[in-house]
Amino acid sequence: MQGPEAPDLVHGPPRIGISRCLLGENVRYDGGHQLDRFLRDTLGQFVEYVGVCPEVECGLPTPRDSLRLVGDPENPRLVTRKTGEDHTERMKAWAGPVLDELAAKNLCGFVFKSRSPSSGLHNIKVYNQETGQPISHKGRGIFAQAFVERFPLLPVEDDGRLNDALLREMFIEKIFLFQRLRQSIARGRTPRELMEFQATHKLIFMAHSPQHARELGAIAAHAKERSIEDVYCDYLGTMHACLERKLTPAKHQNVLQHAMGYFKTQLSADEKQELLEVIEHFRQGHVPLIVPITLINHFTRKYQEPYLSRQWYLRPHPQELALRNHA
């Protein structure tokens, strides 16, 4: 993040970059699209998309000869399959100004097209230019690579991996968290603002990594002792590392039991037993996460628990997306 954004640029729904073919636009090499109805019709109700098609926007026609990565897997070239025409420099020259434009849009994430030699994020085949045989399955699309180098802290994912319920939940959790972070920074980079952000996201961080959650708490607690730029640099880097850790039932169980501790004096014996049983049923995979979360939300409202009422862990993304409904 380059600095405090003006509030009028960060209010409203998260702004998400996305490969245009996933929105149903006919920009693929064969003149078709790869519409993802969940992304366009479901998630699209809660975010604002910024569509990008590197191949079309850098000047290639539709339809066109398909592209592939060749050469050094660490620094591949982007060439046409049939003629071997090299479009690497063309793509990179186009990407520079476009990344500047995207920086101004204050994106909260990007969804790339899987398996694309320009936009693929993970496990793109890289071929030997002479033999035409794949030599690596660990490549990354030319534009995707430029994007993550420019915006290393932004949440990114590809459409293929978003078919995994856990990865989908984690990505969407991150984009809404990142939007709240942008809004926080827009109010000012101050120790007080950082402490407020940390306090309301503590349980989310605990669910990913208790160790990183403690480190984030320490950074925020000592924010007055260093330059605020250094503090935010450390905080954002640690937060990124934290959110990359996968959510697991055991980690959620730890957070849920921690939340339960805020009702020590309010819950009856029957209520405590009910909550413990629901948490255990979740850990064993018999019920989805939404079940214990709903019960804790119920107790939070019933007993007006002030700390938990501020925790984004209990409502990290729109409930309509049903991301916590999978067992």
TrEMBL record:
Residues 202-318 form the DUF1722 domain. It comes from the Bacteria. This is DUF1722 domain-containing protein.
